[in-house]
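A quick aside before the break. I want you to see a complete sequence-to-structure record at least once, exactly as it would be stored in a machine-readable document. Don't worry about memorizing anything.
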Amino acid sequence: MSILSKAYRADMFEVRHLVDEEHHGVRLDQFLQIYLDSFSRETVKKKIKEGEITIVGRPGTHKPSTILHHKDEVVIRFFKTKYEDEYWRGEKLELQTVPEIVFEDDDLIVISKPAFMSTHPAGRHVFNCATVFFEMKYEHTIHSLHRIDRETSGILMLGKNPKMANEMMLRFEQDDVKKCYLFIAKVQPGYDGQTEFIANERMASPDPGLKRVVVEYYPENSTQGKHARTFFYILEKVGDYVIGIACPQTGRQHQIRVHALAHGLPLIGDKLYLGSYPMFQRFKDQIASDDDFNLMEIPRHALHAIALKIPYKKEEKIFVTHIPQDLKEWILQKTSLKIEDLEKKIHETILKYYSRQDD
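That is the input. The structure line, written in tokens, reads:
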């Protein structure tokens, strides 16, 4: 399946696919399931029925059973709907949809991605995406070099051309990139009070079904899971909360969130690890209880990619962003900390970690 073109507008996204020889003779609905793998078969059939799927050169309404031929062009349209909206206590959130640009030149864009913005289109999240924002701005393809979770905010790098994208993605694959994340956690009995520690618990998603989203942790000497390693620096402890910096040296799914949980510091707003899989589902289905909201405190997990160090054009670059507004508001409401003092401590800790990497 080859993508011939993509087009974005304020309320509509259109992608045109070429039917490759290997898909000659395949039903339209089966072909679409390859691209729309997160959509149910019924949703795919509904899109066909409502005319959101067309085959170039074949007039009329198509059926799920329509047979495709080699070199057919299939056009899929997505329209902006309420399904991309986010709610908290029954009220629609006003999302930040314009990312802050931290650095930009002819080859690279480094942004501070807002929470709830996806890195690139996936599933029902098609419009509020970093690549989409800049593709609409520059009217050409923008390449995602890595990704951070939709709820996680912070430093994200995007390539303006294939050459730079390939070069920088190789940096990520070769572990030449060092990241630091700001987090806020709720202290649990498993926390031993250390202000600096290294988490080495192994990780895996043991459930192949719907619960595969949940990552489990295992002892460092276990044969289960995969090796993972995160440096933690606790900057402030205020009552039952800590504010800290986490620096992952491996890139496992949910690594910081799971390592924090393993050491008694689940992140506030984390529906999976401060909460549970049933709670995660309740929020997803918009049936969360008052107790659920009270436990979470904020609409998303409190994790922000605050700094990234990477070799770029023959020099070491460190890109740093600020504490995001939602976490800043929580800090001001819940603590007596001064933001400028906290940011100074954050920067000192980041430099401490990066100098450690140069040892």
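Two observations worth writing down. The chain has three domains: 2-79, 95-172, 177-357. The first strand starts at residue 2 and ends at 8. We'll return to this after the break.
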